[in-house]
Amino acid sequence: MAEQETPVQDLSKYDARVELERLATQLAKANRAYHTEDAPDISDADYDRLKQRNARIEAAFPDLKRADSPTDQVGAPVAEGFGKVRHEIRMMSLSNAFDDSEIMAFDQSIRRYLGLKDDDPLAYTAEPKIDGLSLALRYEKGALVQAATRGDGVVGENVTANARTIGDIPTRLEDAPEILEVRGEVYMSHADFADLNGRQAAKGAKTFANPRNAAAGSLRQLDAAITRDRPLRFFAYSWGVLSAPLADTQTGAIQRLQDLGFQTNPLTLRCTGPAEMVAHYQMIETMRATLGYDIDGVVYKADDLDYQSRLGFRSTTPRWAIAHKFPAELAWTRLEAIDIQVGRTGALSPVARLTPVTVGGVVVSNATLHNEDYIAGRDASGAPIRDGKDIRVGDWVQVYRAGDVIPKVADVDLGQRRKDATPYPFPTHCPECGSDAIREEGDAVRRCSGGLICPAQAVEKLKHFVSRAAFDIEGLGAKQVEQFYTDGWIAEPADIFTLKDRYGSGVQQLKNREGWGEKSAQNLFDAIDDKRAIPLGRLIFSLGIRHVGEVVANLLARSYGTWGAFVTAIDAAQDRESEHWAGLTGIDGIGTVVATALVSSFAQEAERASIDRLVAHLDVQEAERPQTEGSPVAGKTVVFTGTLDRMTRAEAKARAEALGAKVSGSVSAKTDLLVAGPGSGSKETKARDLGVEIIDEDGWLDLIEGT
Ligand code: IVH
Known about the structure:
By secondary structure, this protein is α+β, with helices and mostly antiparallel strands. 36% of the residues lie in helices and 19% in strands. Strand 23, helix 25 and strand 24 form a beta-alpha-beta unit.
């Protein structure tokens, strides 16, 4: 992106033609990546820059404007797999402005268009521009009948079943116009995004780059049950087809939508002119970091709906609205050093140490460099990123911050590179313990092979062990654990439970250190004793095995019931041909990635010995067994496949498990029952071949009725 561009006024006609072609190709690719694949390949700021350059060249050479000009395109063609919906009224885009003078010009151009004098009243609404994806909801006689994504603005995807699972979207309206199409934005909050990514990571599933991608990926699931499990939200801000007007003004219409039961943005404000609009923009900008969801600007709309209809549209944007975008949160600074941090699972993570710089109001001195490929300028498949430019210590780099995400190094300016700069040699040994750092095939990350002998891994494991969702020992947090480790008091989790025996009379010794008195030392020993009895799920989670998050740990606990059964099964599952391996990977929610991580960590001698030493001090509680008396499916292995209409997959599974059934993700000789909805494919065939009993959703509900 940083290569030198010829200023538009210096372009020859030939160059301009070539440049327009290049921009059309590049923008079409970016559109596809963003809208169809939910995986943006360039930043929003770069996208806007390309689009602006395209528009400037078109303005200078109007006769070169292409038939497929990016200026006239909104979004990208619909993805395959969903039904198509033709929007009766095209879904528009918004033109962008970046500084206050453009807002004055916007007001002036509207006045000119409408023939208003400078002192005639002309009100606007100002509201946050939500960074999600737009959705059109069609209601007939108050009932939600269709939900469609924007697609290319003309034809979108039919996502009705998915939209019905979103809490903010009413499925019935009282006193609504007979036909009403409500438009707005589907988005995911920061908290829900973090939570979802945590759950995804725990399952060994794909995590999302940002809340917008997570929202798009979640809305466009062919299985609505997956969408139901994703916490999506919706703000209504506009409308399409209407059988009767909602109000006379934008403000009134938004109020009406709110009265009908839609969420509307609380920061929507009626303004009497550009000064108030810009003031509101600045206010929203200061609140941006604390809103809890991503916004990328403020949208202004002429308030009077008569004016809106007189002003009408350009090819893809309304004349009566404009988006005032926030400046991109990026800055350039010097990369002073690259440090390697070693995590709990041994991952070597490169961290950029930067000359401190303000990015979007926050001082940034560290940023992530992801992994060794990222530094070298290629992705996991070896394809170039940043046009193949690598990043070197001493380079002038661009730092980028999106929402609450950790800052990233996005780009490098080769023009500023020192002559003697050399490519960064990614360490092949752990900087903490010197063990080989190995990169396994298919893993983007290089890992320290030192296991517990590596102090960095040991400390991170201990911190994880005492964390809230793990042992959660009062008075023993990350800070204390680190101190005890450094002092040689504890080297592994088991040592926590012998602390009192070793130092106990030794409250004395504890007492002598900073922050500890006799009382707090005694409290600590009591708190540790309190946690000797530990639920199986918590124990499994606390071991800090790669890919084994809380969700997976609880699945394992429920499937195996006791520590003994669990260990025996995992040991036996080392044999991939065994029924134990099949049983492990057959647990719904556990794939081969998780299973492999588990089996190999139990197979590592030192690690296993450390786990055994720990468990010797514990009273591991059996996982809560479901109440199964009188259950027709207790002890049976059930598989759900295809679409379920009357419940989500998650509900069905929870219910079955509560009745003592084991729910598995795949059909095998051990399957007792297959519940098959429409669209069940290979699982049904396999069940038939194996002679497994097959019933449909109604059959299942009949079976468990009355339990
Ligand atoms: S009004 C005819 N209001 O921004 C104009 N759009 O860049 C209809 N967006 O496609 C859009 N927040 O997905 C409007 N408060 C808001 C918005 C908003 C986000 C999105 C919307 C639109 C895109 C245009």
